[in-house]
Amino acid sequence: MPKLPVISGDEFVHAMEQLGYSIDRIRGSHMILRAAGRPQLSVPRHRTLDRGTLRGLIRDAGLTVEDFLELLTQ
């Protein structure tokens, strides 16, 4: 399994926008993402996401780590 990069919440959102996600609202320090036919995601708006949090968000979006890394490089 490839190693997860250290990224911010905003970088995560940018990668998810390629899958059709968009920011529905921002409440406090969290961004709520929605996409048709996909689960809602709550992303912390932090400078760095903890690796466990990032892995959970990737899993909740129905992606593998490899798929997510491809989105980051696009």
Could you explain the architecture of this structure?
- By secondary structure, the protein is of the alpha+beta class.
- It has a single domain (9-73), classed as Metal Transport, Frataxin, Chain A (2-Layer Sandwich), CATH 3.30.920.
- The protein has 3 helices and 3 strands, in the order αβββαα.
- It has helices at residues 9-17, 51-60, 65-73, and strands spanning 22-27, 30-34, 41-44.
- It has a 3-stranded antiparallel beta sheet with strand order 1-2-3, covered by helices on one side.
- β2 (30-34) and β3 (41-44) form a beta hairpin.
- It is globular, with a radius of gyration of 11 Å.
- The model has no long low-confidence stretch (mean pLDDT 94).
What's the topology here?
Elements: H1 9-17, E1 22-27, E2 30-34, E3 41-44, H2 51-60, H3 65-73
Antiparallel strand pairs: 1-2, 2-3
- Looking at the structure, the CATH topology is Metal Transport, Frataxin, Chain A
- Nearest-angstrom radius of gyration? 11 Å
CATH class equals Alpha Beta
Instruction: Spell out the CATH superfamily.
Output: Hypothetical protein
Reported for the largest beta sheet, the result is: 3 strands, antiparallel
H/E order of the elements?
Answer: HEEEHH
Beta-strand percent range: 15-25%
Short description:
The chain is of the alpha+beta class and 74 residues long. The chain contains 3 helices and 3 strands; from the N terminus they run H-E-E-E-H-H.
Give descriptors for this structure.
three-stranded antiparallel β-sheet; single chain; alpha+beta; 74 residues; Metal Transport, Frataxin, Chain A; 3 strands; 38% helix
